[in-house]
């Protein structure tokens, strides 16, 4: 908590002294080819259908402005994604043989509907190992992404993982891959690693080479243990470009994969009596995992919201998240047709909900007066993104 608080303070000071227009909401008139654009996608397993639905909508609006070949990767300087969000990031940024986007945003949900039931099938799982053996997940990711390496993505990406041997986060990014061969892993390996949720899928081991030919080993699990919501990771990664003066404004779209409806599950008088096993599993719940997951996601959202609020640039940050999932839709691995259709429906309904911002005191999302619906905001953002791209092409 101290680390993230210090980061926000540093960002605030730096923004205040280096961004010439940081205290103004971004408008078409103030866009002059110097806006850095960021897209961030949370983890959440099969619930990736929710951001997949929203991304398909955003891309459709970009296509209305710039033609049917418009793709999201062409509009964002950086796309970050954790776990299932890392897989979505790869789908959006993987190149074809002509170095054009291999997939459209509408292909994201096609992927989940076609392959989700096989990824989350219990047929081959071992009673003594992870819930799922991960064989189909690895197979289909390798089929989709082939030999594409991190340095080939169509825009800069950053995908968090966690090295269980070193006990530290490992961030894979396009810029690092271009600078160091040891970070230029196969995009497929990085996707398998960032989706290797503890207890759910096996950890992933792979190797790369240093410049001198020596081998580098990775022993990785789900990036969500470090950053379920990778928005802050993305801002920190791109911040160097702002400090160098290449950009003067920041535009961020952050997409959640939904979370369970808030319930007062635990209280101090109860948990103070718990044994270690209760913290791991209690009456069908997983308290420790619930706490870490919620803390990781909410802390990032609170601090990033605070950052933009302090800069008077709230409209430059759009967070779309449903925090009221109930029943089957709150599951990360229930890949039945009915549940996947329900998740897609949640994504569509989320588009029509009011733009909301996290309440720093309660952590709850509350509607923001005067900003319309999420679809209204995405339409506005699509115009800004389109204008920024055109200005850059003209220059």
TrEMBL record:
Pfam family, one: Patatin
GO biological process: defense response; lipid catabolic process
Example of a GO MF term: monoacylglycerol lipase activity
PROSITE patterns reported in the protein's UniProt record: PNPLA
Keywords: Hydrolase, Lipid degradation, Lipid metabolism, Plant defense
Superkingdom of the organism of origin: Eukaryota
Known EC number: 3.1.1.-
Class of this enzyme: hydrolase
Keyword Lipid metabolism attached: yes
Similarity annotation: Belongs to the patatin family.
Domain notes: The nitrogen atoms of the two glycine residues in the GGXR motif define the oxyanion hole, and stabilize the oxyanion that forms during the nucleophilic attack by the catalytic serine during substrate cleavage.
Chain's role: Lipolytic acyl hydrolase (LAH).
Name the record gives this protein: Patatin
């Amino acid at each position: 908590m101290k680390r993230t608080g210090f980061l926000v303070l540093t960002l605030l000071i730096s923004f205040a002294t280096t961004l010439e227009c940081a205290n103004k909401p971004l408008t078409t008139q103030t866009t002059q080819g110097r806006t850095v654009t960021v897209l961030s996608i949370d983890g959440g397993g099969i619930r990736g259908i929710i951001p997949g639905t929203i991304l398909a909508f955003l891309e459709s609006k970009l296509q209305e402005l710039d033609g049917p070949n418009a793709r999201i990767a062409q509009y964002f300087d950086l796309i970050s994604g954790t776990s299932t969000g890392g897989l979505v990031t790869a789908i959006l940024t993987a190149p074809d043989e002509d170095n054009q986007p291999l997939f459209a945003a509408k292909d994201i949900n096609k992927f989940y509907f076609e392959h989700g039931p096989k990824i989350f099938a219990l047929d081959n799982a071992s009673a003594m190992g992870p819930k799922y053996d991960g064989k189909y997940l690895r197979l289909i990711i390798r089929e989709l992404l082939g030999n594409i390496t991190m340095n080939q993505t169509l825009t800069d990406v950053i995908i968090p993982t966690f090295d269980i041997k070193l006990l530290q986060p490992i961030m894979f990014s396009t810029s690092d891959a271009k600078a160091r061969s040891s970070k230029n892993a196969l995009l497929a390996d990085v996707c398998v690693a960032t989706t290797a949720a503890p207890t759910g899928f096996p950890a992933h081991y792979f190797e790369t080479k240093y410049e001198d030919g020596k081998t580098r080993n990775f022993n990785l699990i789900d990036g969500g243990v470090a950053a379920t919501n990778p928005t802050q990771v993305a801002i920190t990664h791109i911040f160097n470009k702002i400090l160098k003066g290449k950009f003067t404004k920041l535009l961020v779209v952050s997409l959640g994969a939904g979370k369970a409806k808030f319930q007062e599950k635990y209280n101090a008088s109860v948990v103070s009596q718990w044994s270690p096993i209760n913290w791991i599993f209690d009456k069908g719940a997983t308290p420790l995992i619930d706490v870490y997951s919620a803390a990781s996601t909410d802390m990032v959202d609170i601090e990033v919201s605070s950052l933009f609020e302090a800069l008077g640039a709230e409209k430059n940050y759009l967070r779309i998240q449903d925090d009221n999932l109930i029943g089957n839709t709150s599951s990360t691995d229930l890949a039945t047709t009915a549940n996947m259709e329900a998740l897609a429906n949640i994504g569509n309904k989320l588009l029509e909900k009011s733009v909301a911002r996290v309440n720093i005191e309660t952590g709850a999302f509350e509607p923001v007066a005067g900003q319309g619906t999420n679809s209204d905001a995405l339409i506005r953002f699509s115009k800004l993104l389109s204008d920024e791209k055109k200005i850059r092409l003209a220059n």
